[in-house]
Amino acid sequence: MKIATWNVNSIRTRLEHVINWLQANPVEVLCLQETKVIDKDFPLQPFLDIGYNCYISGQKSYNGVAILSRSPLGQVSAGFAPILGDETVGSFDEQKRLITGLIDDIRIICVYVPNGSEVGCDKYEYKLYWLKLLQQYLEVALDKSPNLCICGDFNIVPGDLDIYAPKASANSAGLSVPERLALKEIIELGLNDPFRKFTSEGGHYSWWDYRAASFPRNNGWRIDHHYLSLPLYEKATNCTIDVSPRKLVKPSDHAPVIVEF
DNA sequence: ATGGCAACACACTGTTGA
Description:
The chain is built from eight helices and 14 strands.
């Protein structure tokens, strides 16, 4: 089984790329982020036509997540509130950043972690609190599901090997100590990064800035990840970043990442 | 230090992204 994640930076703009990619790479599950479209305008039919069930949670202009799956998902829900309750979550589900469903006995969670903008600003504080909620959410989810795969755009560079210029970017959102600590605490719930099971060297990235010829220079960041509970991690046979869609005309700034088990 | 590129909306400029 292959489970892929891809921040598409607008599903309507990237529709042809995603359809073509799925036809060439018929993964069981594709998790999408930054769909940037309200649910009634999501282009469902092209995905139904090629055999994917669609589960979507979108909003106007920003954010938005979706899970596409060859077989129907069970127990689908969006946002933190179905697990954590309205009182804990407050207004944090207004931004559509999490959707989940069950395939076989595997809990799939698709996330778009906030960007954070600049260290110390309101959006950065929002990101840190959002990560706290995610941690609480995962504690419950892991308790219920021994087989769990969370994947998406984490907007955090886990280690200095995961970015082309760690020192120059050290003060950027995505690298700060509190963000990395928040991710570490999430991982320590019992999750594992399958990319690092198979690849120990640096130079492998999933996002490249549109500006300054970042992609041809491979000036990238590895911020799109899967995290697997131990039973799944042990079964993982491969985890790769497919850079080919990033080479197309009008690409997303992110590349898809695929785990196989 | 700054800007560069792309997508979107109460659109031709401002905001967001990472």
